[in-house]
Amino acid sequence: MRKISFTLLLWCPGLLYAQQPVRYVKPIIGTEKMGHTYPGATVPFGMVQLSPDTDTIPYELDGKYNPDVYKYCAGYQYTDRTITGFSHTHFSGTGHSDLGDFLIMPTTGPLQLNPGTADHPENGYRSRFSHANETAEAGYYKVKLDDHDILAELTATNRVGFHQYTFPSSGDAHIILDLMAGIYNYANKNVWTFVRVENDTLITGYRQTNGWARTRTLYFAMTFSKPIKKYGHRNYANDVYKGFWRKFNQSENFPEMAGRQIRAWFDFDTKAGEKVKVKFALSPVSTDGARRNLEAEIPGWDFEAVKQQSQNAWNKELSKVAVKTIKPDDLVNFYTALYHTYLGPTTYMDADGGYRGIDQLNHTANGYTNYSTFSLWDTYRALHPLFNILQPQRNADMVRSMLEHYNQSVHKMLPVWSHQGNENWCMIGYHSVSVIADAIMKGNIKGYDAMQALEACANTARYKPYDGLEWYMQMGYVPEDKNGSSVSKTLEYAYDDWCIAQVAQKLGRQDLYKEFIQRSLNYRNVFDASTGFMRPRLSNGEFRKEFDVLSTHGQGYIEGNAWNYSLYVPQYPAEMISLMGGRKQFTTHLDSLFTMHLPDAFFAETEDITRDGIIGNYVHGNEPAHHAAYLYNWTDAPWKTQERIRMILGKMYKPAPDGLGGNDDCGQMSAWYLFSTLGFYPVCPGSTEYALGSPAIQSATIQLENGKTFEVETVNQGEQNVYVKKAVLNGKTLQRPFIHHEDIMNGGKITFYMDRRPTK
After folding, report:
1. Which of the following CATH numbers is that of domain 321-349+584-760: 3.40.50.300, 3.40.50.11900, 3.30.2080.10, 3.40.50.720?
2. Angle, to 10 degrees, between the axis of helix 328-341 and the axis of helix 668-678?
3. Whether domain 51-317 has CATH 3.65.10.10
4. I need a surface site. Which of 26, 174, 241, 689 has the fewest CB within 10 A?
């Protein structure tokens, strides 16, 4: 993706009540500082993410990329004071974007089909609003639209958004359907849109777009709680050819609307306080599929019942972990993070299992849920490992979805970054391999064939045209003069290859084990002993002469620099430490990462990093060094892991308007928080081992899907007591700062005895 990281903004707590016997605090439902998380209505892993959008910033300005659009990756920007409408699809915490489909806006007064501007909302259909009149809860959103005196309320099921608009008395009440609106929008993003008025309450249609997903069609069915008085549309595309449809007056009360740039309107008479409700269903297959989704999920018009159903779904998922914390803020942080991790991946199929594949054919998911929105460069690190504990059945279905992607792929590649029936090829690596290996190694093999999964992983890793792989296989590294970000790619390919080797060994495929375990050692080929860093290498075998260990641009890395990326050998941490001079020297080196000061020039050359996401030169706002603080566990100073983790938790995660130190990246930042606050972390997914840190809770009980529970307990916990004096697992004192996956899944209890002084 060219995934960029800015400070996260969390906001507007929503009250969430769990089922007995646990009552939960308010997760903070909201948006990052740069607008990368949305505050809307959805259910866990829901296909519909119904949320307000606050501006119409275009992707293109004067023929060039408009950097301001980056603030609107999720459509909503907290500092804005106007709302343009409520659209049904959004990404959570990504650094690139798409979606924002089917924007609806209720208005009163003279019909205005232009959105207007933030400075003069009265010139369009947008409206001013105040955060004082705004509520965001899990599964529910409410806001007063001041310019139109309308109270807007939203809730959702998996595939249906439910709107409830309380109007004033008006003979000019409108509900606008803007099919031009979108996120990361530009003039030619819409390929085609179509609307069909089936009767006086039911509307169907679709939208085809060419964006991050370059071939995407999404269908809808929309129904109103009262009959339409009149309706119409305007096509803003200046098409020379208009065909013989011109014999009709299509602008008003004509039941078919088609074009590239359409805004439609539907009129009603309303009494003071009258609620006009809209149910809006999505389908990746057809308008009939959308209509059937609507009938299956919200057959009636009871808004409060659907809201309660949505919040019950959230309570069911959030109640899988019950925690007690030192401070109330920590409790809010915990459930905010847990909420974020359940926003995606998203369901991508109709209620009957139908979905559109990446081959642009319709398929049926039999016996599993098909998922989309795989931000794998981010989420393989902690989110999917978290799912192997909290959501193993869903994660198995996600693996199955990846394998079906592979089967449909003309390249015979597993997904890299995919959404809504498309591969967008964003970022680097082939980290589906990591997700699949982690599931298989942890015994989460449900509904798919592990041997076929292994073959898919191996074939993906051998696809020569992909991103320097031909050179990597030929030379043992990606040469920088042949393919950029070469060091990052070499290191990440080597890790993924190790994952393949582990599965091959487990399944008895020694041929594949030998092939990929050898490839997993390729990290050595970009290590420069003269500098002590991983360094870009050229096709002639020489290291590139120009080399800046602090710069993030043009140095062979992506979203990181030599200091952070040189630590990325998660499959062989002990060997990496030896390569870098041994435990003592490495400990000093790692200390420097957290304590050094970056010059202002570092920030002058980049738009994707601010000091908010950095501690010293440790970049928590981006993912490549998320494991770094745990590396002390392989040295003689594991107590420094404990110290660093608690420091990162305190600095990077707060229940405040600037609460997170980077994009949530589809849940990865939040998953890091959850693991770390519980006291253990998957440094190397694909391994069954977790490195211990310093738990920041008093206690936690995890309700496992297999019916067992795993408890985390702390003794002598406190804000100053960040060091672990000893850890006891099921009555036995641990001799090493590690536990294994089976220790958790078999149920039991780990007790951390905390102290204010390190145990060296």
Report:
1. 3.30.2080.10
2. 130
3. no
4. 241
